[in-house]
Design goal:
Chains A, B: It holds the Pfam family FAA_hydrolase. 2 copies of one chain form a homodimer. Chain A is built from 5 helices and 21 strands. By secondary structure, chain A is mainly beta. The relative contact order of chain A is 0.21.
Protein backbone atom coordinates (compact mmCIF):
# COMPACT_ATOMS: atom_id res chain seq x y z
CA UNK A 1 0.00 0.00 0.00
CA UNK A 2 1.11 3.55 -0.75
CA UNK A 3 0.16 5.83 2.14
CA UNK A 4 1.00 9.46 2.75
CA UNK A 5 -0.19 12.76 4.19
CA UNK A 6 -1.69 15.76 2.40
CA UNK A 7 -2.93 19.15 3.56
CA UNK A 8 -6.64 19.53 2.81
CA UNK A 9 -8.22 22.84 3.82
CA UNK A 10 -5.32 23.42 6.18
CA UNK A 11 -5.69 20.06 7.94
CA UNK A 12 -3.46 17.00 7.76
CA UNK A 13 -5.22 14.09 6.10
CA UNK A 14 -3.99 10.58 5.48
CA UNK A 15 -4.21 9.57 1.81
CA UNK A 16 -3.92 6.16 0.17
CA UNK A 17 -2.95 5.78 -3.49
CA UNK A 18 -5.21 3.53 -5.55
CA UNK A 19 -3.48 0.58 -7.19
CA UNK A 20 -5.15 1.31 -10.50
CA UNK A 21 -4.92 4.01 -11.69
CA UNK A 22 -1.99 4.74 -9.41
CA UNK A 23 -2.20 8.50 -9.75
CA UNK A 24 -5.46 8.77 -7.84
CA UNK A 25 -5.52 9.13 -4.06
CA UNK A 26 -8.32 8.45 -1.56
CA UNK A 27 -8.61 10.64 1.52
CA UNK A 28 -9.11 8.59 4.69
CA UNK A 29 -11.79 9.70 7.14
CA UNK A 30 -10.49 12.14 9.74
CA UNK A 31 -11.56 9.66 12.43
CA UNK A 32 -8.49 7.56 11.62
CA UNK A 33 -5.21 8.70 13.22
CA UNK A 34 -2.13 10.08 11.44
CA UNK A 35 0.46 7.97 9.64
CA UNK A 36 2.81 7.88 12.64
CA UNK A 37 0.12 6.31 14.81
CA UNK A 38 -0.96 3.92 12.06
CA UNK A 39 2.67 2.82 11.71
CA UNK A 40 2.93 2.10 15.44
CA UNK A 41 0.43 -0.75 15.16
CA UNK A 42 -0.08 -1.40 11.45
CA UNK A 43 -1.36 -5.00 11.78
CA UNK A 44 -4.26 -3.60 13.81
CA UNK A 45 -4.92 -0.55 11.62
CA UNK A 46 -4.38 -2.01 8.16
CA UNK A 47 -7.82 -3.71 7.92
CA UNK A 48 -9.54 -0.46 8.95
CA UNK A 49 -7.56 1.52 6.36
CA UNK A 50 -8.36 -1.01 3.62
CA UNK A 51 -12.02 -0.97 4.61
CA UNK A 52 -12.09 2.84 4.42
CA UNK A 53 -10.56 2.76 0.92
CA UNK A 54 -13.10 0.14 -0.24
CA UNK A 55 -16.01 2.05 1.25
CA UNK A 56 -14.93 5.22 -0.53
CA UNK A 57 -14.92 3.27 -3.81
CA UNK A 58 -18.33 1.73 -3.16
CA UNK A 59 -19.84 5.07 -2.18
CA UNK A 60 -18.47 6.72 -5.31
CA UNK A 61 -16.38 9.22 -3.34
CA UNK A 62 -14.18 10.94 -5.89
CA UNK A 63 -10.48 10.14 -5.59
CA UNK A 64 -8.11 13.07 -5.97
CA UNK A 65 -5.54 13.25 -8.77
CA UNK A 66 -2.22 13.05 -6.94
CA UNK A 67 -0.89 16.14 -8.68
CA UNK A 68 -3.76 18.19 -7.22
CA UNK A 69 -2.79 17.39 -3.64
CA UNK A 70 -0.62 19.51 -1.35
CA UNK A 71 1.77 16.83 -0.15
CA UNK A 72 3.23 16.94 3.34
CA UNK A 73 6.03 14.73 4.64
CA UNK A 74 4.39 11.25 4.84
CA UNK A 75 4.96 11.29 8.62
CA UNK A 76 4.48 15.01 9.21
CA UNK A 77 6.28 15.21 12.57
CA UNK A 78 8.51 12.19 13.14
CA UNK A 79 10.18 11.94 16.53
CA UNK A 80 13.55 11.90 14.80
CA UNK A 81 15.17 11.77 11.38
CA UNK A 82 18.48 9.91 11.47
CA UNK A 83 20.77 9.91 8.42
CA UNK A 84 23.55 7.43 7.77
CA UNK A 85 26.72 9.13 6.53
CA UNK A 86 29.01 8.01 3.72
CA UNK A 87 27.30 4.65 3.27
CA UNK A 88 27.94 3.88 -0.37
CA UNK A 89 30.52 1.44 -1.61
CA UNK A 90 31.49 4.06 -4.20
CA UNK A 91 32.93 6.02 -1.27
CA UNK A 92 35.38 3.33 -0.33
CA UNK A 93 38.40 4.73 -2.12
CA UNK A 94 37.66 8.24 -0.86
CA UNK A 95 37.74 7.37 2.84
CA UNK A 96 41.17 7.53 4.45
CA UNK A 97 39.85 6.77 7.91
CA UNK A 98 36.40 6.28 9.43
CA UNK A 99 34.34 3.85 11.49
CA UNK A 100 33.39 0.32 10.42
CA UNK A 101 29.90 0.83 11.88
CA UNK A 102 27.24 3.23 10.54
CA UNK A 103 27.90 6.85 11.58
CA UNK A 104 24.79 9.01 11.81
CA UNK A 105 23.54 12.55 12.24
CA UNK A 106 20.02 13.83 12.98
CA UNK A 107 18.10 16.22 10.76
CA UNK A 108 15.47 18.39 12.52
CA UNK A 109 11.84 17.76 11.58
CA UNK A 110 11.55 21.42 10.59
CA UNK A 111 13.85 20.64 7.64
CA UNK A 112 11.28 18.28 6.08
CA UNK A 113 9.01 19.23 3.18
CA UNK A 114 6.66 17.15 1.06
CA UNK A 115 6.63 16.27 -2.62
CA UNK A 116 6.33 19.29 -4.92
CA UNK A 117 6.90 21.73 -2.08
CA UNK A 118 9.61 24.29 -2.86
CA UNK A 119 13.19 23.99 -1.68
CA UNK A 120 14.12 27.50 -0.52
CA UNK A 121 17.75 28.51 -0.87
CA UNK A 122 19.16 31.79 0.38
CA UNK A 123 22.29 33.45 -1.01
CA UNK A 124 24.22 32.98 2.25
CA UNK A 125 23.81 29.19 2.06
CA UNK A 126 26.42 28.97 -0.69
CA UNK A 127 26.39 25.77 -2.74
CA UNK A 128 23.53 23.29 -2.14
CA UNK A 129 23.53 19.84 -3.73
CA UNK A 130 21.05 16.95 -3.68
CA UNK A 131 21.68 13.59 -1.98
CA UNK A 132 19.19 10.97 -3.21
CA UNK A 133 18.43 8.33 -0.56
CA UNK A 134 16.19 5.44 0.39
CA UNK A 135 14.45 6.20 3.71
CA UNK A 136 13.14 3.62 6.17
CA UNK A 137 10.03 4.44 8.21
CA UNK A 138 9.89 2.71 11.59
CA UNK A 139 6.73 0.84 12.56
CA UNK A 140 7.03 -0.91 15.90
CA UNK A 141 9.66 0.84 18.00
CA UNK A 142 12.33 -0.77 20.12
CA UNK A 143 15.77 -0.85 21.67
CA UNK A 144 18.50 -3.46 21.17
CA UNK A 145 16.82 -4.91 18.11
CA UNK A 146 18.56 -8.04 16.80
CA UNK A 147 19.71 -7.93 13.18
CA UNK A 148 17.43 -10.85 12.26
CA UNK A 149 14.37 -9.12 13.74
CA UNK A 150 15.15 -5.66 12.40
CA UNK A 151 12.99 -5.69 9.27
CA UNK A 152 9.95 -6.57 11.44
CA UNK A 153 10.30 -3.03 12.83
CA UNK A 154 10.00 -1.43 9.38
CA UNK A 155 6.63 0.09 8.52
CA UNK A 156 7.68 0.94 4.99
CA UNK A 157 10.02 2.81 2.68
CA UNK A 158 10.02 6.27 1.18
CA UNK A 159 12.42 8.64 -0.63
CA UNK A 160 14.43 11.45 0.93
CA UNK A 161 16.60 14.09 -0.69
CA UNK A 162 19.18 14.87 2.00
CA UNK A 163 20.09 18.35 0.76
CA UNK A 164 23.55 19.45 1.78
CA UNK A 165 25.48 22.69 1.63
CA UNK A 166 29.22 22.00 1.40
CA UNK A 167 29.77 25.74 1.83
CA UNK A 168 28.03 25.79 5.22
CA UNK A 169 29.75 22.50 6.14
CA UNK A 170 33.16 24.09 5.62
CA UNK A 171 32.09 27.19 7.55
CA UNK A 172 30.75 25.18 10.49
CA UNK A 173 33.88 23.06 10.92
CA UNK A 174 36.18 23.86 13.81
CA UNK A 175 39.86 23.09 13.92
CA UNK A 176 40.61 23.25 17.59
CA UNK A 177 42.54 21.78 20.45
CA UNK A 178 40.18 19.43 22.29
CA UNK A 179 40.73 18.91 26.01
CA UNK A 180 41.56 15.30 26.84
CA UNK A 181 42.75 13.77 30.10
CA UNK A 182 46.52 13.48 30.29
CA UNK A 183 47.30 9.75 29.89
CA UNK A 184 50.65 10.25 31.64
CA UNK A 185 48.98 11.48 34.83
CA UNK A 186 45.95 9.18 35.05
CA UNK A 187 45.13 9.78 38.72
CA UNK A 188 45.25 13.57 38.47
CA UNK A 189 41.85 15.13 37.76
CA UNK A 190 43.48 18.44 36.86
CA UNK A 191 45.83 16.93 34.27
CA UNK A 192 44.78 17.69 30.72
CA UNK A 193 46.40 17.64 27.33
CA UNK A 194 45.29 19.24 24.08
CA UNK A 195 44.53 17.09 21.03
CA UNK A 196 44.35 18.63 17.57
CA UNK A 197 40.77 17.96 16.42
CA UNK A 198 38.47 18.73 13.52
CA UNK A 199 34.77 18.77 14.37
CA UNK A 200 31.95 19.69 12.01
CA UNK A 201 28.45 20.61 13.13
CA UNK A 202 25.50 19.73 10.85
CA UNK A 203 22.74 21.94 12.33
CA UNK A 204 22.85 24.34 9.40
CA UNK A 205 24.40 22.54 6.42
CA UNK A 206 22.04 19.56 6.80
CA UNK A 207 19.24 21.06 8.90
CA UNK A 208 18.09 24.28 7.24
CA UNK A 209 14.37 24.63 6.47
CA UNK A 210 13.36 22.68 3.31
CA UNK A 211 16.68 20.73 3.28
CA UNK A 212 14.71 17.48 3.70
CA UNK A 213 12.27 16.84 0.83
CA UNK A 214 10.62 13.48 1.58
CA UNK A 215 7.87 11.36 0.00
CA UNK A 216 5.65 11.49 -1.91
CA UNK A 217 4.34 8.58 0.21
CA UNK A 218 5.41 5.47 2.07
CA UNK A 219 5.25 2.05 0.40
CA UNK A 220 4.51 -0.50 3.11
CA UNK A 221 7.12 -3.18 3.75
CA UNK A 222 5.12 -6.06 2.24
CA UNK A 223 5.47 -4.46 -1.20
CA UNK A 224 9.27 -4.12 -0.98
CA UNK A 225 10.56 -7.69 -0.78
CA UNK A 226 14.23 -6.63 -0.92
CA UNK A 227 15.20 -3.06 0.01
CA UNK A 228 18.66 -3.74 -1.45
CA UNK A 229 17.49 -4.46 -4.97
CA UNK A 230 16.13 -1.03 -5.87
CA UNK A 231 17.31 1.36 -8.55
CA UNK A 232 17.64 4.93 -7.32
CA UNK A 233 17.93 7.75 -9.77
CA UNK A 234 18.42 11.48 -9.38
CA UNK A 235 17.24 13.77 -12.16
CA UNK A 236 17.97 17.48 -12.42
CA UNK A 237 15.93 19.55 -14.87
CA UNK A 238 15.11 16.33 -16.72
CA UNK A 239 18.75 15.19 -16.99
CA UNK A 240 19.83 12.05 -15.13
CA UNK A 241 22.57 12.95 -12.65
CA UNK A 242 22.97 9.65 -10.81
CA UNK A 243 21.68 6.14 -11.30
CA UNK A 244 22.63 3.66 -8.65
CA UNK A 245 21.33 0.61 -6.79
CA UNK A 246 20.56 0.24 -3.11
CA UNK A 247 22.65 -2.94 -3.43
CA UNK A 248 25.65 -0.59 -3.15
CA UNK A 249 24.79 0.57 0.35
CA UNK A 250 27.63 -0.63 2.57
CA UNK A 251 25.58 -0.94 5.76
CA UNK A 252 22.27 -2.67 5.03
CA UNK A 253 18.88 -1.70 6.49
CA UNK A 254 18.90 -4.52 9.06
CA UNK A 255 22.46 -3.71 10.16
CA UNK A 256 21.68 -0.01 10.52
CA UNK A 257 18.51 -0.54 12.55
CA UNK A 258 20.20 -3.06 14.80
CA UNK A 259 23.26 -0.87 15.45
CA UNK A 260 21.23 2.32 15.83
CA UNK A 261 18.93 0.68 18.36
CA UNK A 262 21.95 -0.37 20.44
CA UNK A 263 22.30 3.26 21.58
CA UNK A 264 19.06 5.01 20.56
CA UNK A 265 15.45 3.96 21.06
CA UNK A 266 13.56 3.69 17.78
CA UNK A 267 10.02 5.06 17.84
CA UNK A 268 7.09 4.58 15.44
CA UNK A 269 7.34 7.04 12.57
CA UNK A 270 11.09 7.64 12.96
CA UNK A 271 12.82 8.15 9.62
CA UNK A 272 16.18 6.53 8.86
CA UNK A 273 17.87 7.85 5.70
CA UNK A 274 20.18 5.15 4.40
CA UNK A 275 22.90 7.20 2.72
CA UNK A 276 23.52 8.66 -0.67
CA UNK A 277 23.45 6.96 -4.04
CA UNK A 278 26.65 8.39 -5.44
CA UNK A 279 27.56 6.40 -8.53
CA UNK A 280 27.72 8.85 -11.44
CA UNK A 281 25.29 8.15 -14.26
CA UNK A 282 26.35 7.03 -17.73
CA UNK A 283 26.21 10.69 -18.72
CA UNK A 284 29.09 11.24 -16.28
CA UNK A 285 28.23 13.64 -13.51
CA UNK A 286 28.07 13.79 -9.74
CA UNK A 287 25.38 15.02 -7.38
CA UNK A 288 27.97 17.37 -5.86
CA UNK A 289 28.14 19.19 -9.19
CA UNK A 290 24.43 19.97 -9.17
CA UNK A 291 24.51 23.29 -7.38
CA UNK A 292 20.85 24.07 -6.86
CA UNK A 293 21.81 27.54 -5.59
CA UNK A 294 22.97 28.56 -9.05
CA UNK A 295 21.12 26.12 -11.32
CA UNK A 296 17.68 26.11 -9.67
CA UNK A 297 15.30 23.16 -9.93
CA UNK A 298 13.37 20.99 -10.28
CA UNK A 299 15.31 18.18 -8.62
CA UNK A 300 13.82 14.69 -8.56
CA UNK A 301 14.65 11.35 -6.97
CA UNK A 302 12.98 8.13 -8.04
CA UNK A 303 13.23 4.64 -6.59
CA UNK A 304 11.81 1.60 -8.37
CA UNK A 305 8.60 0.42 -6.77
CA UNK A 306 8.32 3.47 -4.55
CA UNK A 307 7.79 6.47 -6.82
CA UNK A 308 9.28 9.83 -7.65
CA UNK A 309 9.91 12.73 -5.29
CA UNK A 310 10.22 16.01 -7.13
CA UNK A 311 10.71 19.54 -5.83
CA UNK A 312 11.04 22.97 -7.40
CA UNK A 313 13.69 25.39 -6.12
CA UNK A 314 13.08 28.96 -5.01
CA UNK A 315 16.14 31.15 -4.79
CA UNK A 316 16.53 34.25 -2.64
CA UNK B 1 6.93 30.56 37.67
CA UNK B 2 8.65 27.18 37.77
CA UNK B 3 6.79 24.74 35.54
CA UNK B 4 7.67 21.21 34.51
CA UNK B 5 6.35 17.75 33.66
CA UNK B 6 6.13 14.67 35.84
CA UNK B 7 4.89 11.13 35.28
CA UNK B 8 1.94 10.36 37.56
CA UNK B 9 0.47 6.86 37.24
CA UNK B 10 2.11 6.54 33.83
CA UNK B 11 0.66 9.80 32.51
CA UNK B 12 2.36 13.09 31.77
CA UNK B 13 1.18 15.82 34.12
CA UNK B 14 2.16 19.47 34.23
CA UNK B 15 3.46 20.55 37.64
CA UNK B 16 4.04 24.01 39.08
CA UNK B 17 6.47 24.59 41.94
CA UNK B 18 5.11 26.62 44.83
CA UNK B 19 7.04 29.80 45.63
CA UNK B 20 7.08 28.97 49.31
CA UNK B 21 8.12 26.37 50.20
CA UNK B 22 9.85 25.89 46.86
CA UNK B 23 10.20 22.16 47.17
CA UNK B 24 6.47 21.47 46.88
CA UNK B 25 4.80 21.01 43.51
CA UNK B 26 1.14 21.31 42.51
CA UNK B 27 -0.23 19.02 39.80
CA UNK B 28 -2.29 20.91 37.23
CA UNK B 29 -5.63 19.44 36.18
CA UNK B 30 -5.32 17.09 33.20
CA UNK B 31 -7.73 19.36 31.31
CA UNK B 32 -4.87 21.82 30.75
CA UNK B 33 -2.53 21.01 27.84
CA UNK B 34 1.15 20.03 28.07
CA UNK B 35 4.01 22.45 28.61
CA UNK B 36 4.79 22.72 24.88
CA UNK B 37 1.26 23.94 24.16
CA UNK B 38 1.23 26.26 27.16
CA UNK B 39 4.52 27.76 25.90
CA UNK B 40 3.02 28.41 22.46
CA UNK B 41 0.60 30.97 23.90
CA UNK B 42 1.69 31.65 27.45
CA UNK B 43 0.03 35.08 27.81
CA UNK B 44 -3.30 33.31 27.22
CA UNK B 45 -2.59 30.26 29.41
CA UNK B 46 -0.77 31.87 32.30
CA UNK B 47 -3.91 33.19 34.09
CA UNK B 48 -5.53 29.74 33.84
CA UNK B 49 -2.43 28.04 35.24
CA UNK B 50 -2.21 30.55 38.10
CA UNK B 51 -5.91 30.07 38.83
CA UNK B 52 -5.46 26.28 38.94
CA UNK B 53 -2.58 26.62 41.42
CA UNK B 54 -4.62 28.97 43.62
CA UNK B 55 -7.66 26.72 43.51
CA UNK B 56 -5.56 23.72 44.55
CA UNK B 57 -4.34 25.74 47.55
CA UNK B 58 -7.84 26.87 48.48
CA UNK B 59 -9.24 23.36 48.18
CA UNK B 60 -6.48 21.96 50.34
CA UNK B 61 -5.19 19.68 47.60
CA UNK B 62 -1.90 18.31 48.89
CA UNK B 63 1.17 19.48 47.02
CA UNK B 64 3.77 16.83 46.25
CA UNK B 65 7.30 17.05 47.64
CA UNK B 66 9.45 17.56 44.54
CA UNK B 67 11.74 14.68 45.45
CA UNK B 68 8.78 12.27 45.35
CA UNK B 69 7.98 13.07 41.72
CA UNK B 70 9.15 11.15 38.66
CA UNK B 71 10.47 14.04 36.60
CA UNK B 72 10.24 14.00 32.82
CA UNK B 73 11.93 16.49 30.49
CA UNK B 74 9.99 19.74 31.11
CA UNK B 75 8.84 19.68 27.48
CA UNK B 76 8.57 15.90 27.04
CA UNK B 77 8.74 15.82 23.23
CA UNK B 78 10.12 19.07 21.83
CA UNK B 79 10.12 19.41 18.05
CA UNK B 80 13.87 19.88 18.14
CA UNK B 81 16.79 20.27 20.50
CA UNK B 82 19.50 22.49 19.03
CA UNK B 83 22.87 22.82 20.75
CA UNK B 84 25.36 25.61 20.18
CA UNK B 85 28.92 24.29 19.86
CA UNK B 86 32.07 25.75 21.42
CA UNK B 87 30.36 28.90 22.67
CA UNK B 88 32.45 29.84 25.66
CA UNK B 89 35.01 32.59 25.71
CA UNK B 90 37.30 30.13 27.52
CA UNK B 91 37.50 28.29 24.20
CA UNK B 92 38.99 31.24 22.39
CA UNK B 93 42.62 30.24 22.64
CA UNK B 94 41.82 26.64 21.72
CA UNK B 95 40.17 27.41 18.38
CA UNK B 96 42.54 27.60 15.42
CA UNK B 97 39.74 28.09 12.90
CA UNK B 98 35.96 28.15 13.08
CA UNK B 99 32.95 30.28 12.21
CA UNK B 100 32.17 33.70 13.66
CA UNK B 101 28.48 32.78 13.87
CA UNK B 102 26.96 30.12 16.18
CA UNK B 103 27.51 26.57 14.87
CA UNK B 104 24.89 24.07 15.97
CA UNK B 105 23.96 20.41 16.04
CA UNK B 106 20.64 18.73 16.88
CA UNK B 107 20.15 16.19 19.66
CA UNK B 108 17.27 13.70 19.17
CA UNK B 109 14.38 13.93 21.64
CA UNK B 110 14.97 10.29 22.57
CA UNK B 111 18.23 11.39 24.22
CA UNK B 112 16.37 13.50 26.81
CA UNK B 113 15.72 12.37 30.38
CA UNK B 114 14.32 14.23 33.36
CA UNK B 115 15.81 15.21 36.70
CA UNK B 116 16.90 12.23 38.83
CA UNK B 117 16.42 9.78 35.95
CA UNK B 118 19.47 7.57 35.41
CA UNK B 119 22.12 8.23 32.77
CA UNK B 120 22.82 4.81 31.26
CA UNK B 121 26.34 4.23 29.95
CA UNK B 122 27.41 1.09 28.10
CA UNK B 123 30.99 -0.16 27.95
CA UNK B 124 31.24 0.44 24.17
CA UNK B 125 30.50 4.15 24.63
CA UNK B 126 34.05 4.73 25.96
CA UNK B 127 34.53 7.99 27.88
CA UNK B 128 31.45 10.11 28.66
CA UNK B 129 31.76 13.57 30.18
CA UNK B 130 29.20 16.17 31.30
CA UNK B 131 28.65 19.53 29.59
CA UNK B 132 26.68 21.89 31.86
CA UNK B 133 24.56 24.35 29.89
CA UNK B 134 21.82 26.94 30.07
CA UNK B 135 18.89 25.92 27.84
CA UNK B 136 16.37 28.27 26.29
CA UNK B 137 12.78 27.06 25.81
CA UNK B 138 10.99 28.67 22.86
CA UNK B 139 7.53 30.14 23.43
CA UNK B 140 6.15 31.82 20.35
CA UNK B 141 7.77 30.32 17.26
CA UNK B 142 9.02 32.17 14.23
CA UNK B 143 11.40 32.60 11.33
CA UNK B 144 13.76 35.52 10.65
CA UNK B 145 13.46 36.86 14.16
CA UNK B 146 15.22 40.19 14.65
CA UNK B 147 17.83 40.29 17.40
CA UNK B 148 15.91 42.96 19.29
CA UNK B 149 12.71 40.87 19.28
CA UNK B 150 14.38 37.55 20.05
CA UNK B 151 13.82 37.44 23.81
CA UNK B 152 10.07 37.91 23.21
CA UNK B 153 10.17 34.39 21.72
CA UNK B 154 11.59 32.87 24.91
CA UNK B 155 9.12 30.99 27.12
CA UNK B 156 11.71 30.34 29.81
CA UNK B 157 15.01 28.80 30.80
CA UNK B 158 16.06 25.41 32.07
CA UNK B 159 19.25 23.37 32.58
CA UNK B 160 20.67 20.76 30.22
CA UNK B 161 23.61 18.43 30.66
CA UNK B 162 24.82 17.88 27.10
CA UNK B 163 26.55 14.55 27.72
CA UNK B 164 29.31 13.81 25.24
CA UNK B 165 31.46 10.82 24.46
CA UNK B 166 34.82 11.92 23.03
CA UNK B 167 35.55 8.25 22.30
CA UNK B 168 32.51 7.93 20.01
CA UNK B 169 33.27 11.37 18.53
CA UNK B 170 36.72 10.18 17.47
CA UNK B 171 35.26 6.93 16.12
CA UNK B 172 32.55 8.70 14.12
CA UNK B 173 34.92 11.16 12.42
CA UNK B 174 35.81 10.55 8.80
CA UNK B 175 38.94 11.73 7.11
CA UNK B 176 38.00 11.58 3.46
CA UNK B 177 38.31 13.17 0.09
CA UNK B 178 35.15 15.20 -0.45
CA UNK B 179 33.96 15.68 -4.02
CA UNK B 180 33.92 19.35 -5.03
CA UNK B 181 33.40 20.92 -8.44
CA UNK B 182 36.66 21.65 -10.24
CA UNK B 183 37.10 25.46 -10.11
CA UNK B 184 39.38 25.32 -13.17
CA UNK B 185 36.62 23.85 -15.36
CA UNK B 186 33.59 25.78 -14.15
CA UNK B 187 31.32 25.00 -17.09
CA UNK B 188 31.94 21.25 -17.03
CA UNK B 189 29.40 19.33 -14.95
CA UNK B 190 31.59 16.23 -14.96
CA UNK B 191 34.67 18.04 -13.63
CA UNK B 192 35.37 17.25 -10.00
CA UNK B 193 38.30 17.55 -7.66
CA UNK B 194 38.90 15.93 -4.29
CA UNK B 195 39.31 18.05 -1.18
CA UNK B 196 40.83 16.59 1.98
CA UNK B 197 38.07 16.88 4.60
CA UNK B 198 37.38 15.92 8.18
CA UNK B 199 33.72 15.43 9.04
CA UNK B 200 32.34 14.26 12.38
CA UNK B 201 28.83 12.91 12.88
CA UNK B 202 27.12 13.52 16.23
CA UNK B 203 24.26 10.97 16.06
CA UNK B 204 25.90 8.68 18.58
CA UNK B 205 28.38 10.72 20.62
CA UNK B 206 25.78 13.41 21.40
CA UNK B 207 22.53 11.55 20.71
CA UNK B 208 22.59 8.26 22.62
CA UNK B 209 19.66 7.54 24.93
CA UNK B 210 19.93 9.43 28.26
CA UNK B 211 22.67 11.75 26.89
CA UNK B 212 20.36 14.73 27.45
CA UNK B 213 19.39 15.18 31.11
CA UNK B 214 17.21 18.31 31.26
CA UNK B 215 15.23 20.15 33.92
CA UNK B 216 14.09 19.83 36.61
CA UNK B 217 11.68 22.50 35.36
CA UNK B 218 11.46 25.68 33.31
CA UNK B 219 11.68 29.10 34.95
CA UNK B 220 9.54 31.47 32.92
CA UNK B 221 11.29 34.39 31.28
CA UNK B 222 9.84 37.09 33.57
CA UNK B 223 11.84 35.62 36.47
CA UNK B 224 15.18 35.72 34.60
CA UNK B 225 15.83 39.40 33.93
CA UNK B 226 19.29 38.76 32.43
CA UNK B 227 20.15 35.29 31.08
CA UNK B 228 23.79 36.39 30.90
CA UNK B 229 24.21 37.08 34.59
CA UNK B 230 23.78 33.54 35.91
CA UNK B 231 26.28 31.36 37.74
CA UNK B 232 26.42 27.82 36.38
CA UNK B 233 28.08 25.11 38.39
CA UNK B 234 28.75 21.44 37.73
CA UNK B 235 29.18 19.11 40.68
CA UNK B 236 30.35 15.52 40.50
CA UNK B 237 29.84 13.31 43.54
CA UNK B 238 29.57 16.44 45.63
CA UNK B 239 32.80 18.00 44.31
CA UNK B 240 32.60 21.20 42.25
CA UNK B 241 34.04 20.54 38.79
CA UNK B 242 33.23 23.81 37.04
CA UNK B 243 31.92 27.16 38.12
CA UNK B 244 31.31 29.66 35.40
CA UNK B 245 29.01 32.51 34.41
CA UNK B 246 26.66 32.71 31.45
CA UNK B 247 28.31 36.11 30.90
CA UNK B 248 31.12 34.10 29.27
CA UNK B 249 28.95 32.75 26.46
CA UNK B 250 30.39 34.20 23.26
CA UNK B 251 27.12 34.21 21.30
CA UNK B 252 24.30 35.58 23.46
CA UNK B 253 20.74 34.20 23.63
CA UNK B 254 19.32 36.93 21.38
CA UNK B 255 22.09 36.48 18.80
CA UNK B 256 21.67 32.72 18.71
CA UNK B 257 17.87 32.84 18.31
CA UNK B 258 18.12 35.46 15.60
CA UNK B 259 20.81 33.63 13.62
CA UNK B 260 19.20 30.21 14.09
CA UNK B 261 15.85 31.52 12.87
CA UNK B 262 17.52 32.84 9.70
CA UNK B 263 17.72 29.25 8.42
CA UNK B 264 15.48 27.17 10.72
CA UNK B 265 11.93 27.81 11.90
CA UNK B 266 11.64 27.95 15.67
CA UNK B 267 8.62 26.20 17.14
CA UNK B 268 7.02 26.41 20.59
CA UNK B 269 8.76 24.06 22.99
CA UNK B 270 12.00 23.86 20.98
CA UNK B 271 15.07 23.64 23.21
CA UNK B 272 18.22 25.65 22.46
CA UNK B 273 21.26 24.61 24.51
CA UNK B 274 23.58 27.57 24.75
CA UNK B 275 26.97 25.87 25.01
CA UNK B 276 29.17 24.58 27.74
CA UNK B 277 30.40 26.34 30.82
CA UNK B 278 34.02 25.32 30.63
CA UNK B 279 35.97 27.47 33.05
CA UNK B 280 37.66 25.15 35.53
CA UNK B 281 36.66 25.66 39.12
CA UNK B 282 38.96 27.02 41.79
CA UNK B 283 39.72 23.40 42.69
CA UNK B 284 41.29 23.09 39.23
CA UNK B 285 39.56 20.55 37.05
CA UNK B 286 37.77 20.26 33.72
CA UNK B 287 34.47 18.67 32.75
CA UNK B 288 36.38 16.57 30.20
CA UNK B 289 38.20 14.85 33.06
CA UNK B 290 34.97 13.68 34.67
CA UNK B 291 34.62 10.34 32.93
CA UNK B 292 31.22 9.15 34.08
CA UNK B 293 31.90 5.77 32.42
CA UNK B 294 34.58 4.98 34.99
CA UNK B 295 33.65 7.25 37.90
CA UNK B 296 29.85 6.87 37.91
CA UNK B 297 27.53 9.54 39.28
CA UNK B 298 25.72 11.46 40.51
CA UNK B 299 26.39 14.42 38.25
CA UNK B 300 24.65 17.73 38.93
CA UNK B 301 24.32 21.09 37.21
CA UNK B 302 22.94 24.13 39.00
CA UNK B 303 22.15 27.60 37.68
CA UNK B 304 21.33 30.50 39.97
CA UNK B 305 17.61 31.29 39.98
CA UNK B 306 16.73 28.15 38.03
CA UNK B 307 17.59 25.18 40.22
CA UNK B 308 19.66 22.02 40.24
CA UNK B 309 19.50 19.16 37.76
CA UNK B 310 20.96 15.97 39.20
CA UNK B 311 21.22 12.48 37.72
CA UNK B 312 22.58 9.16 38.90
CA UNK B 313 24.66 7.03 36.52
CA UNK B 314 24.04 3.38 35.69
CA UNK B 315 26.92 1.53 34.09
CA UNK B 316 26.67 -1.59 31.93
Amino acid sequence: MKIGTAAIDGRERVVVLLDDPGDLAVLLPATLPGVGELAADWPRWRPRVEEAVERAGAEGVAAEPMDDLTWLPPVPRPGKVVCVALNNSANKDRIMSGPEHPATFPKPTTSLVGHQQPIRIRPEYGRVHPEPELAVVIGRGGRDIAREDALDHVFGYTIINDLTSPTMRAEDTFHYRAIHPDPERPGDATAIRYVDTWVSYPGRYKGADTFGPIGPWIVTRDEVPDPHDLTIQCTHQGRVVTKDSTANLKHKVADVLSFLSSYSTLEPGDIIAMGTALKPSGAGSAVQNVDLATLGGPISVSITGIGELSNPVELG
